[in-house]
Design goal:
The chain is mostly helical. It has helices spanning 2-11, 18-31, 33-45, 55-71, 81-89, 96-116. Helix 3 (33-45) packs across helix 6 (96-116) and helix 4 (55-71) packs antiparallel against helix 5.
Length: 117
């Protein structure tokens, strides 16, 4: 959409100030840890990760899986990619298919939260 709209945007002088970019960057930086923390809370709530377990691998696996799904060009909105990549890295005693379903449940909750917002 950006390429066809480029002449319109240029004609309208739709260029924001550097302070606006800085504010948007600050908002994204503050918002970033919330999905990761909520993912850990979700996994702890369904007894997939105990509170005594190290939170670091869960965060790293989540972020890496998110990035892999984000850069995947053949899947819209990284549908299914995030879940499969996370299930490859996670070391749970649960078989792979139920783990993918549990992780997909988190995605559904995030989607519903986004729709509510």
């Amino acid at each position: 959409m950006a390429i066809p709209l480029a002449p319109y945007i240029k004609k309208r002088s739709f260029i924001t100030l550097i302070t606006t970019y800085a504010q948007l960057t600050a908002v994204c930086t503050v918002f970033g840890p919330f999905p990761t923390g909520s993912f850990h809370s979700y996994m702890a709530a369904i007894r997939m990760s105990a509170a005594t377990n190290c939170i670091f691998p869960i965060i790293v696996y989540y972020l890496f899986s998110f990035v892999v799904g984000f850069v995947t060009i053949y899947s819209p909105q990284d549908t299914g990619i995030f879940e499969v990549v996370y299930s490859e890295f996670a070391t749970f005693e649960l078989p792979r298919a139920p783990l993918i379903i549990f992780v997909a449940g988190f995605r559904v909750s995030v989607m519903l939260c986004g729709m509510l917002t």
